[in-house]
Design a protein that fits this description.
The structure is a single chain. Helix content is 42%, strand content 23%. The chain has 8 helices and 12 strands. The longest helix has 21 residues.
Amino acid sequence: MSDTRYRILLVEDDQSLGYVLSEYLRMKGFEIAWAREGESAVGMLSDNKYDLAILDVMMPKMDGFTLAGRLQKECPEMPFLFLSARSMKIDVLKGLSVGAVDYLKKPIDEEELVARIEALLQRIGTRKDEAQQSSYDIGAYHFNFLNQELKFQGDTIRLTSRENELLQFLVSNRNQLCTHKDILLQLWGKNDYFNKKSLNVFVTHLRKHLERDKRIKIENVHGRGFILRVGLETE
């Protein structure tokens, strides 16, 4: 890992696991803030900025899925992942559909967790560093990648981290086919069933954000991928 000390918000109600993970991640060079429940995590966001959040799903008062929704309203630019004992397909799909960049199943080896975190943060940082431009005109919309904002006639839509990355990928390749594989490997780091389902959810989000300009369409090419078409009136 580089000399950059990434700040991570860990939300875990299990005292033993929370202590072990926070100490291990500190030993590996991360700055860790540990919240034992959801409301505390939300409160910590007002005075601090984090590079990543790790959320447990099964917590009292506020579960991880509900907390994820709160986090995206408070700081949509912050990526988050789930670390949970709930490992059924429906749980993984729900976690990815609410915006998680990964869903890791307990119990997990601490070294694997660190490897996944480092790969994720490096991938996100590299994409931001290599972005050839930070703003784009998409029909009547103006998209600012660095600020994660999409503007239309004075209205501003704050994009989540995943929405922001996906829209930048599509607009950089506008009017060209973006295959499922290329998108998933570039943004998710893994081409599998769960991430493909997550991709479809975020394409739906972007379609809704862009629906006010009828010249814009994210076309589904069955079994292959998506094309962001801009400039022609759609039916």
